[in-house]
Each structure stands twice: as C-alpha cells, then as structure tokens.
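[stage:ingest] chain + small molecule (cytidine-5'-triphosphate)
[stage:ingest] validated
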Amino acid sequence: MKTPRILLIVSGGIAAYKALELVRLLRREDIAVRAVMTESARQFVTPLSLGVLTGDQVYGNMFDLKEESEIGHIQLSRQADLIVICPATANIMAKMAAGIADDLATTILLATDAPVLAVPAMNVRMWHHPATQRNLAQLRADGITIMEPDSGGMACGEWGKGRLPEPEVVAAEIRNLLSAPSPFVPSEVEGHSRALHGKHVLVTAGPTHEPIDPVRYIANRSSGKQGFAIARAAADAGARVTLVSGPVALPTPRGVTRVDVETAREMLAAVEAALPADVAFMVAAVADYRTQDEAAQKIKKSGDGPAPLTLIENPDILATLGKHPKRPGLLIGFAAETEKLADHAQAKLARKGPDWIVANDVSGDVMGGDANSVHIVTAQGIDTWERLPKGAVANRLIEKVIHVLAVD
Ligand code: CTP
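[stage:predict] done
[stage:export] tokens:
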C-alpha cells in the first residue's frame, strides 16, 4: 500500500498549536504530511516546530523563487491525497468561498482537485455570524468536508461553539477520508491491537425513527458518533463487528458490517439476528415509545383542539438481551442522563441486567458533539473518566473490554 499524503494548511488562529499534535498523530500512522502556513499562522506557531514534526520544509511564500523552484504551488496541490486546513479560520474560509487566491495556501486551494477537509476554529460569535454560515454552506456545496467545531470555553474567555476538535478526533476523520490502510491505534491499546481477533462485537448506534404517518416520525438528537467510534475501535482491535444503526449521516467504519434500521422493533430484530456475540455495546438512543397505529395517510389538521397521539411502549433491546438465552458474554448499556447520574445508572444496571452501564451526562452538548464525559458503572462501583473525544472514549472502552476478557 502506498503511503497516504496529506497537505496540511495551517491558518492563523490560536488553535494553530493543535496542528502540531495532529502532525505527530498522523506521522505515527505513517501518513506523510507536508505543511503550508499562512502569514498569520506564523504568528502563532513557528515554521521550525512544524517542519521538525513533518520532517520536511514548511511552505508559505508563493513568490520565493527557491521554494517555487524546488516544488511549485501547482505541484504541491497535485501531490496530496487529501488537503486538510487545520485550523481553518473564518478568513480563509471566506476567501475560499469567494475563490480568492492571494497567497500560497489559497492558491493551492483554488488549484487543487484533491478532496479538502476544513477544520474550523474561531470565536463563537464569528462562527455564528451569517457571513461565516453563508460561506460554510457555499463550501459544503463546493464539495468541501467541514468538521463541526466543539463547544466549550474559548481562549478569549467566552463560551460556545467554535473550538477546534481534539487532534485525535481530527486524525480519525482524516483516516476516515483517506480510508488509510493502517488503523489509528492510540498508545493505550498499542500491543493489544489484534487482541479481539476471533471475537464478535455487536454495537447499536444512532436514534430510532418511529413513524406517525407517511411523512412524520418521532426521533431524538442522537448522532450515532459514539457507537460508530466504538465499532471502529473494536474493528481496529481485530474483532468481527456488526453495527446495527438507526438513521444517521455517518460513513461505515472500515471492516465493519453495518445493518441499517429505522424503528426500535427493527433494531431488536437485527440485534437478535446478529447473535451470538461475545461483547454487545447498546449505544443506540432507542425511542421508548411509538405510536399505537401508524396512520396510513398524512394526518390532517382538524382545527378542534389538541390532536390525539396514543403512544405505546417499545421493546427494550438492552433488557431483552439481559435475559436472553444467547446473552452476550459481556453486555454493556449506555445511559443518557441530565441529573442524578450515578443513581439512575445504578437503577438501570439492576433493571436491565447489563454488566456495565456507561453513563453520559447529556445536560451539555454531548448529543451531536465530538466529546463525551462518562462514568462506568458496574457492580463493583463507579469509574469516572475525564471529558474525552468520543474516539478516545471508544478506545478506552475497548481497552477495558480487552482487559476484562483477558482476565476471565
Ligand atoms: N435501550 C434499549 N431499548 C430501549 C430503550 C433503551 O435497548 N427501548 C438501551 C439503550 O441503548 C441504552 C440503555 O438502554 O443502552 C439506556 O437507555 P436510556 O434511554 O438512557 O434509558 P431508559 O431505559 O430509556 O430510561 P429513561 O428514559 O428512564 O432514562
């Protein structure tokens, strides 16, 4: 397999320092990185630091004859399998949306036909400004992949959306786009990378959609990111993985068998069909209720007060597996809580019969976001992990599974 090549464009934002960690992660996966810095990026990190990590010259000046004679800007744009702009400032994205090419970075972006990933980072107000949102829509329409920024405290002291996702999350997205041959294996599971060889891991992910009539349904805000990250981490560790997913907009991780479903009942049927499994992660946010009768025709407004919608309970997939004759050897449930997290998680452990409950505090921006703060609740007690990217949570969960299976 040939080494994948990234052209990394670093534009000028406070998050530019995270590009250094990103380069380190990519190099560890044998991805070749060549870097271009904008003039303002050089105010935040030095070309020297970036050059040491890429092991190559850092480019920046289109009118430097020496640089151009060694490798011209057209060549730079042609040699990459993927161009990554990290961080992508509001300014560089505005220029791209308008087709402006007034420095080396923007000229490359206009000249390339390689896929482009932009990883925005900026102040929350800049992110929400209509001009930025307009530019993002234009860039998406132009075929550029844009990562969602994280929410949280900002360097400027404000709070909100606009933070650069963790480098590990960006690296995972890059690998996804490259479909790189070597999986990203974090240090914690190094040496264990094929430890789940011969095991079947079953994962549910995403929301379910419960139809009301031919055009409406009941749903929730689950993005599927955490479940997909677990499926990927399990596959990276050598497992055979079945991922039963509700409707989500995510690519299937490499090496994973995906079964798409819509409703809770379809999810249960797909899960039972996939048994036996050595390990099952029930990550899906299954709708607890569905309508008693799905209307055959679109329900019309009657104008006489509230419309009746009779809801009945859906099967509980986790609880069904908890007492199933083919119960997975290690059964792991998830719990989304907004209050009294430990109490509710412990009650779910007792009621549904899994071995662990991974409890998420969803009072913030977890649903749809890229990071998660989790508590692992088992009969032995509670283990609390610091807030981590969803990919890192997945890797640590798989590491814990490897450990438990090795002990048993
Ligand atoms: N779950 C399931 N089937 C359902 C509902 C939930 O398999 N019909 C699973 C989820 O995949 C998750 C766990 O149960 O692993 C907990 O889900 P959660 O929605 O937090 O729990 P509920 O039982 O719905 O409890 P509550 O809504 O009261 O918090």
